[in-house]
Design brief:
single chain, 85 residues, mainly alpha, 5 helices
Length: 85
């Protein structure tokens, strides 16, 4: 079973924070949010506002991006890139 998007986001935040040698408190200070929100964000909590996630991600040197939840099928690609023969 794959992790939910917020869970994956939280795991990425934790990994980036640890890789940079930051404590949760230091990251919270950089992001201008309470430490509790960093903890909840690393847990993938839906109670954390997207703005808070964005501030924390920015403070840890990351970037939020939107990507398709699934890859397109071959048939869908054919509609997008028709043969020019």
């Amino acid at each position: 079973m794959t992790a939910l998007p917020l869970t994956r986001l939280g795991q990425a935040i934790r990994s980036m924070r640890q890789h940079r040698g930051l404590t949760q408190q230091a990251l919270a200070a950089r992001a201008g949010v309470p430490r509790r929100k960093v903890i909840e964000g690393e847990q993938g909590s839906p109670r954390v506002a997207i703005e808070t996630y964005a501030r924390v991600v920015d403070a840890v040197g990351g970037e939020l991006a939107v990507a398709p939840a699934r890859r397109p099928t071959f048939e869908e690609l054919k509609d997008i890139f028709p043969d020019e023969d």
